[in-house]
Amino acid sequence: MAGNNETGTVASRPAQRGDAFFVHVGSFGAVFLYFGLLESAGTREEGVFRALPVALAVMTIYVLIARSRGLLKHFDFGLWPMFAIGTAGVYAGSEAVLSLFASYSGSVLFTTLGLVAALPPLLGFETFTMHFARRTTPKWQLGTPEFSSINKIITAYFAVIFFTAAGLAAWEPHNFYYSVVYPNLLIFVAGIPSQFWMPPLYMKLVPISPPQTVETAIMGMTMTFDREAGKDAEATIQFRVSGADAADYYLKVSGGVCEGFEGTTSSPNLTIDTPDDVWLAIARGELDGAQAFQRQSYKATGDLSILMRFDEWFPRPAAS
């Protein structure tokens, strides 16, 4: 989706050139460098002595730059101590630390990632997935109970994946498949795609809580949209909301997909003028939409056959 009226832009500050690197790659550049230097050395011990301080230096520079841009993320706070503790231990003459990094660097890395996923929510802090969610999730979704629950579930799922990857890397640390191939396949095949299949699955299994604001009520219609019922529909629906939370929104239904946007569209098929409290009550199942329309609690102009299909397209919770 694109355009000034779109709800998809949710970053806390305007996007800047190079942000994608900090968001999606970032400190993992130091990780790649570390393992490259480790494997290119004559012995693993020699590689550890060479790779750890270089990776720490690169990581430190990266953290300082990321901090200046406001783009530090959980992985940065986890990986910098990993390299710092390793470097300090090795150069302090600790045989245990040297042996650990020489034989189990892969397991140390994945354990660190697992701790980054598991510890913050357990300690009452924000989950690591929020760093990415702010940049990919419409702002109206961020405060919904469903978003919070899904975010925590995905975080816990990743923690399990990271710790499982650590176990695989520790099982046969000198076997390329167990230390590199299988753990990364687990992350990239089972982990990363979860952001696409887990939210829809959650929405199917767990009832959606009633909306608390008219913005959530309207934009949340995209989440309750019945793809099968609207698979052949083509419609643009403009909402003009009055009242304390006055605003404009519109929905586009096409090819079995419903998208929500802030603002106005030039040629809606249906326009709904509604007070904020009226539509919120309808969305919560506290007010019958057809009866409210007959009483002129809200007005609709354009193709009213679209309005007649709302109950079919957007199933609402029953009144409590």
Global outline: elongated
Q: In terms of per-residue confidence, which ranges show pLDDT below 50 for 5 or more consecutive residues?
A: 1-13
| Spatial ordering of strands, largest sheet | 3-2-1-4-5
Q: Percent of residues in beta strands?
A: 5-15%
Mean pLDDT: 88
Element-level helix/strand string: HHHHHHHHHHHHEEEEHHEHH
Helix content bin: 55-70%
So how many helices? 16
Characterization of the model:
The protein contains 16 helices and 5 strands. With 320 residues, the protein is of the alpha+beta class. It has 2 domains: 19-205; 215-313, SCP2 sterol-binding domain (Nonspecific Lipid-transfer Protein, Chain A), CATH 3.30.1050. The protein has a 5-stranded mixed β-sheet. 32% of the residues are buried.
List keywords for this structure.
single chain; 320 residues; alpha+beta; Nonspecific Lipid-transfer Protein, Chain A; 2 domains; 5-stranded mixed sheet; 5 strands; 59% helix; 10% strand; elongated; disordered N terminus
Quick gist of this model?
By secondary structure, the chain is an alpha+beta fold. It has 16 helices and 5 strands.
Give the helices and strands, then pairings.
Layout (H helix, E strand, L loop, with lengths): L18 H6 L3 H13 L3 H25 L5 H18 L3 H28 L6 H8 L2 H4 L2 H27 L4 H16 L2 H12 L8 H6 L1 H4 L9 E9 L4 E8 L2 E6 L7 E6 H8 L5 H6 L4 E4 L1 H5 L1 H4 L7
Parallel strand pairs: 1-4
Antiparallel strand pairs: 1-2, 2-3, 4-5
Helix pairs in contact: 2-3, 3-4, 3-5, 4-5, 5-8, 8-9
